[in-house]
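Q: My labmate handed me this sequence with no annotations at all. I'd like to see what the chain might look like in three dimensions before we decide whether it's worth expressing. Could you predict it?
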Amino acid sequence: MSREPGYLAKPKAAKSRSARVLQLLELVARRDHPASVQEITEQSGLPKATAYRICSALEADGYLRKELGGRGLVAGPRLLALAQSLIGGSSLATARHAILASAARRIGETCNLSIPKDGEMVYLDRVESEWPLRLQLPAGTRVPLHCTASGKLFLSTLAPALRAPLLRSLTLEARGPKTITEADKLGAALDEIRKSQVGTDDEEFLEGMVAVAVPVTDAAGRFFAALAVHAPLMRMTIEQAKSHVPVLRAAAAQLAELGG
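A: Here is what I predict for the chain of 260 residues:
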């Protein structure tokens, strides 16, 4: 028996009112034919009266409309306009990726852009090198703060009053042969990174892997992302990685102009 793809499977009923509205819009938008209120009810798991009330409100506001002949609901003019705006917004991501790709091409190794979130760094975008030997860490991957070039760079930007409690909350687990697992030593390393504005990872996250990172800042000079390059030690030493900092800084300046 064939199974529906995960993104078409019947979702759990949303709990909040706003989540219910978005859920119904999503159900209608995914279909390639008009959706009746009965079908929406079955797919959403909502009571029929609730589904009918939300659909009526969305139709009145122009987010949904009845198909010609009243055969069901389809996306209305306001929902279509919203979709077009979202698609247009992807031009920013395209420009950002192009800058990242240019840096990766000039250096010849993988470059990534990451942001801090919930005590980790999360890859926002990434361009792989063309070498057969490379580390696969796609966008969305989360990596530790204490042993990655980007994570240490972020920690170095924090004021002492913010950095100290964050460091205490982290588990300084050894991830590579050179991971700094003592808070005092890590603090001293972060002070040096704060001065140079270059994060480093010399086999701290993974054995046989090195990386450097530079900050991407906003108009006020505040850190909001890290741009990094990493490579296997067999192709690049940590000193060689540092020699690519000017390329990274030029790309970071371009990214800052885009707003990240």
